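Inputs:
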Amino acid sequence: MYGQASLDSIVKDRLRKWPQCPPGLTPRGRSQDSWLRGRPADQQGTMAHPFLKLPGSTRLRTLPDGLWLKFGGTPVEPFVDIFAIEACGTLQNLLDKRSRFAPSTQSLLAVCPVPWLLAPIAENDTTPRWMATGLLRRPPVMDFVLPVRDVRVMYGLKRRHYQGFATSQVPHPHEYFVPMDALTAEDSDKDPALQAFMSRACAASNFLSLP
DNA sequence: ATCGTGTACGAGGGATCACT
DNA sequence: AGTGATCCCTCGTACACGAT
């Protein structure tokens, strides 16, 4: 379109190489922490991928550039905690994305389509995703719709926007901001600084860890 | 006071891709 | 194929600021 890859596709290509668990949020041997990467969508596949929406709505679905889901609860009362990444090339785009993840009295839902649940976790792990959720007892025949319990969002901004934002704006508690190059860099998921930053993007960081 | 420049912002719309 | 979501472009407006 512009003679070169768009910013969006560069970010998605990079996030596609990130692991099933968001960097820095690696579970420490806790089997109930089952993270799965729901987005970006597989490059070749035309398969539907998880997305976010409000109850009853068929429009204005949110398709983040990166979306990780941590399944929790029980088969009777399942839920997900989500970690999303949005790359914002323009300030208008940032305003749009922030409004979608803003704290609200409405309920946010995560929809996991059947084909995505039936597919294997990764090329090197043939376990179907529905088994990895730990919440489904048999292969699903309907989309798995879960309430979202906790939301964390990381916004990637162009450096100029990032500097302007960082000097004058106050993020909400669930928001995290990084310059775009922190996402697009080679092996960005292995960057210790980014990992340390992202490790704070969870509810556990709000509690004192006792010895 | 007037003008030019740079920046921020918002409306509108085209292109592309995902999904139905 | 049609609709919807997203990205990002152009264009117009408002404002701050410095030069004239």
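Strands of chain A lie at 34-39, 51-53, 66-73, 78-88, 109-112, 120-122, 125-128, 144-157, 175-179. Flag for discussion at group meeting.
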